[in-house]
Design brief:
The complex is a heterodimer of chains A (325) and B (252). Chain A is mainly α. Chain A has 14 helices and two strands. In chain A, helix 6 crosses helix 8. Chain B has a single domain, classed as Rossmann fold. Helix content of chain B is 37%, strand content 25%. The N and C termini of chain B lie far apart (37 Å). In chain B, strands 6-7-8-3-9-10 form a six-stranded mixed β-sheet, sandwiched between helices. Chain B is α/β, with parallel strands linked by helices. Classes of the chains: A mainly alpha (325), B alpha/beta (252). At the A-B interface, helix 9 and helix 10 of A face helix 2, helix 3 and helix 6 of B. Bound molecules: adenosine-5'-triphosphate (ATP) and magnesium ion (MG). Adenosine-5'-triphosphate (ATP) binds next to helix 1 of chain B.
């Protein structure tokens, strides 16, 4: 999946740095022997090789995908007809499909996730928290294929009753994705709220703010960077998700007609396209390169989201909080 | 003299069984600097947080007795807690500026109380900051983030923040614990100013500080009130052996 956001990585690095490695080494220094050197070089080897592997994956992706953008005029790539068999590679329906499903998922998961986190962290009594928190961790562990199955069996018939010709629609995909993103959003947001010092709450309450005012004006702004991270990680999970979405969105590579019922039409996402067609393409064919081209675009989108998250998190530190109240 | 706050036979046990207060009774008078001192974990904070009902945040505790502010039971049904907290300001050991600018910190309380008149607010800002001995240092940068102030400045900002609501009582729970001597003496000096207008209750950083600022004082030990007297008698001629041991540093 997507790379860890910058801040998370920084935090991990600080953790690692805080281990008094030098102290350990100094004790060992007197009996310095080949084991020291061996262990150190093993660690270094493991570290470097994983970097190299990531780099190679990236190069491979580029090598296989670049021909797409060189051989097919950009305008054609963004046309609305995706008929690979006839040499028509208009990705527009796939991009729109991904967009609708993801945006829909965010619209559902974001408020629900944040509100749940606020409830858990700020309002729920202790005994409820003790039941709900582990439950949410369990939710996060449900394999996506199981959720897809549930969506197919349980959710799709409900959606169909809403008036869609079939239950397999963009909305179905959005709901399933939202459900997948929720545990991430809830548990990371809750951590962020928990990290807000108790003194902030005391301070606000002591000058006559109500509980809700305290949450809105003090706790949420103070937890902002963590909340942004939670949302971005949730979205990251939603965009990259494939199998569940493929099962429930109807897999039709058409641009939905614009209108109120847009979400009730079948779509196909970029990820689902790669998964569905990967097996049938001849290696080295144009179709094959285009699938990798889609991969490159997905990669760019995820990277953009991560860096956006990094920037949002970075600016919400103390300096930016200047204008908050 | 009229009792501002009257504590009558109050006992308080936390949800985990810790008996933080045992049958405490005392009276705090208007316009005095009342010093509440005693060793760590003797129940001072627990008692003070009952006055403005911040104790509501620790559910499951067992509270007995009566606390009257101006003759009104603070735990009576129908008491407006928000209003009570506006009347009884509180400053904590750790300076807690809220996220936001210096001005934002000061106007937050009044805003929540529905006071929006800019002229009135500006007037209060100047007066509160002056009373907290901070005005000269921040008057030119009211819109800077509060987080950039020094520790001592933050604490005086918190005092000013409480004063913005023109409370009747100001509770200072060890307000100089993290401050250097200069900031400490500035906070102490501001107390004399405050005493004119408010009733000040303070947990001191040390016995010496208590003796310096107090009008009257009470000594607490293990959740019990050992002794209460004027500062003069309390710190020079304590009646109880335990108080004397503590004051002279022979405690242990
Ligand atoms: N939220 C809480 N839950 C359970 N026990 C608590 C809680 N807060 C305080 N206590 C306990 O109550 C007792 C009194 O604590 P309190 O904070 O009132 O003491 P204090 O006199 O203010 O001490 P200090 O000088 O260290 O601030 C202590 O034994 C403490 O461990
Ligand atoms: Mg205390």
């Amino acid at each position: 999946m997507s790379a860890l956001p910058v801040t998370l990585r920084k935090r991990l690095r600080t953790l690692v740095r805080d281990v008094p490695f030098d102290a350990v080494r100094n004790i060992q220094w007197s009996l310095l022997d080949w084991r020291e050197i061996l262990i150190e070089s093993l660690i270094r080897l493991a570290g470097i090789s994983s970097i190299i592997i990531v780099g190679m994956i990236f190069l491979f992706l580029l090598r296989e995908g670049i021909p797409t953008f060189l051989d097919i005029p950009l305008r054609q790539l963004f046309e609305s007809r995706w008929y690979p068999n006839e040499g028509l590679y208009g990705m527009w329906p796939l991009i729109v499909g991904s967009l609708i499903v993801t945006v829909g998922a965010i619209i559902v998961a974001l408020p629900l996730g944040l509100i749940t986190a606020i409830y858990l962290g700020e309002i729920a009594p202790e005994w409820q928290r003790e039941i709900l928190k582990p439950l949410i961790e369990v939710l996060a562990g449900i394999p996506s294929i199981v959720l897809g199955f549930l969506g197919w069996i349980a959710l799709a018939p409900l959606i169909q009753k809403l008036g869609a010709p079939t239950g397999l629609t963009a909305l179905t995909g959005s709901l399933i994705l939202a459900y997948m993103a929720l545990p991430t959003i809830i548990s990371i947001s809750e951590d962020a709220l928990y990290a807000v010092p108790k003194e902030y709450r005391d301070g606000a309450l002591a000058i006559g703010a109500t509980r809700w005012q305290t949450i809105r004006h003090v706790v949420l702004p103070a937890a902002r960077s963590g909340l942004v991270m939670a949302v971005m990680l949730g979205i990251g999970r939603a965009i990259g998700e494939t199998m569940a979405v493929m099962m429930v969105t109807g897999n039709a590579a058409f641009v939905p007609t614009f209108g109120a019922d847009m979400a009730l039409q079948p779509v196909r996402t970029m990820t689902a396209t790669i998964a569905a067609e990967m097996g049938e393409v001849a290696q080295g064919s144009m179709h094959y390169h285009v699938l990798f081209g889609i991969g490159i675009m997905l990669f760019l989108i995820t990277a953009a989201i991560n860096s956006l998250a990094g920037r949002l998190v970075g600016t919400s530190g103390n300096r930016r909080r200047g204008g908050q109240l | 003299m009229q009792a501002k706050i009257s504590v009558q036979n109050v006992s308080y046990t936390y949800a985990d069984g810790t008996e933080a207060l045992k049958h405490v009774s005392l009276t705090i008078r208007a316009n005095e600097i009342f010093v509440l001192f005693g060793p760590a974990r003797s129940g001072k904070t627990t008692l003070l947080r009952l006055f403005n009902r911040l104790s509501d945040l620790t559910p499951g505790a067992d509270y007995r007795g009566t606390i009257l502010v101006d003759g009104q039971d603070v735990f009576a049904l129908g008491v407006n807690v928000t209003d009570l907290r506006r009347r009884i300001g509180m400053v904590f050991a750790v300076p807690t500026p809220l996220p936001g600018s210096i001005r934002g910190n000061l106007t937050y309380g009044p805003h929540m109380a529905g006071i929006r008149d800019t002229a009135l607010l500006n007037e209060r800002i100047e007066r509160s900051l002056t009373q907290a001995a901070l005005w000269d240092e921040v008057k030119d940068r009211l819109d800077h983030p509060a987080s950039r102030l020094s520790g001592g400045q933050k604490q005086r900002l918190c005092i000013a923040r409480s004063l913005m609501l023109e409370p009747e009582v100001l509770i200072l729970d060890n307000p100089t614990s993290g401050l250097d001597p200069i900031s400490t003496s500035m906070v102490e000096e501001s107390l004399y100013e405050l005493k004119q207008q408010y009733t000040v209750i303070m947990v001191p950083h040390s016995v010496q500080q208590g003796a310096r600022v107090a009008t009257r004082a009470a000594f607490m030990l293990d959740g019990e009130l050992v002794e209460i007297d004027t500062a003069e008698r309390m710190f020079k001629h304590p009646k109880d052996q335990r108080t004397e041991d503590y004051i002279t540093g022979r405690f242990g």
